[in-house]
């Protein structure tokens, strides 16, 4: 039975047009950070390059999909970051936004990700509101926050 099923799948796949067989779904990641200002050294162009290298190392095509990384500079301004996030989700159809080193921008993007039911991976913003008052099911905040820094330092 198993061999017949694999044989049937192989016959169907062989009959598909080449373009359809090569068409893979694309997962789009947006690295939204400070490309030219205060946080550019810790989360700017280097973060974009790191994201691209991670995708290359993962080899998503071997897992049946593609990953595209795009980047933008939020200039440490919540209004600019919000506009980019909305455009990325609504027009460019990105699946996730990552990085966002400025807390005020991260809080704005967090609300948009929640409203659009998209994922927001927070790597650099430090406000404890992201894991407290403004926490959403769409946020993943894995770096330290201001509460942890203050309490860890004071207790040490």
Distance between the termini: 64 Å
CATH superfamily: Response regulator
Number of domains: 1
Class by SSE composition: alpha/beta
Query: How many helices in DSSP terms?
Result: 7
Tell me the Rg in angstroms. Answer: 20 Å
Shape: globular
SSE string: HHEHHEHEHEEH
Task: Tell me about this structure.
Strand 3, helix 6 and strand 4 (119-122) form a beta-alpha-beta unit. By secondary structure, the protein is α/β, with parallel strands linked by helices. The protein starts with a helix and ends with a helix. The protein has helices at 2-15, 18-22, 40-43, 45-58, 78-90, 103-116, 146-155, and strands at 26-33, 66-73, 96-99, 119-122, 139-141. It has a 5-stranded parallel sheet, with helices on both faces. The chain has one domain (24-155): Response regulator (Rossmann fold, 3-Layer(aba) Sandwich), CATH 3.40.50.2300.
Summary of the model, kept short:
The chain contains seven helices and five strands; from the N terminus they run ααβααβαβαββα.
SSE map:
Elements: H1 2-15, H2 18-22, E1 26-33, H3 40-43, H4 45-58, E2 66-73, H5 78-90, E3 96-99, H6 103-116, E4 119-122, E5 139-141, H7 146-155
Parallel strand pairs: 1-2, 1-3, 3-4, 4-5
Helix pairs in contact: 5-6
Task: Summarize this structure as a short list of keywords or feature phrases.
156 residues, alpha/beta, Rossmann fold, 7 helices, 17% strand, globular
């Amino acid at each position: 039975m198993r061999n017949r099923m694999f044989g049937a799948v192989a016959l169907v796949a062989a009959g598909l047009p080449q373009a359809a067989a090569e068409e893979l779904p694309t997962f789009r990641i947006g690295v939204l950070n400070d490309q030219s200002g205060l946080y550019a050294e810790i989360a700017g162009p280097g973060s974009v390059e790191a994201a691209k290298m991670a995708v290359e190392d993962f080899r998503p095509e071997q897992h049946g999909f593609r990953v595209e990384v795009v980047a933008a500079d939020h200039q440490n301004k919540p209004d600019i970051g919000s506009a980019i996030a909305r455009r990325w989700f609504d027009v460019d159809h990105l699946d996730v936004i990552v990085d966002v080193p400025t807390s005020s921008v991260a809080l704005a993007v967090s609300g948009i990700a929640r409203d659009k039911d998209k994922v927001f991976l927070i790597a650099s913003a430090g406000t404890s509101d992201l894991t407290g008052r403004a926490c959403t099911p769409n946020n993943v905040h894995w770096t330290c926050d201001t509460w942890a820094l203050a309490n860890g330092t004071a207790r040490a």
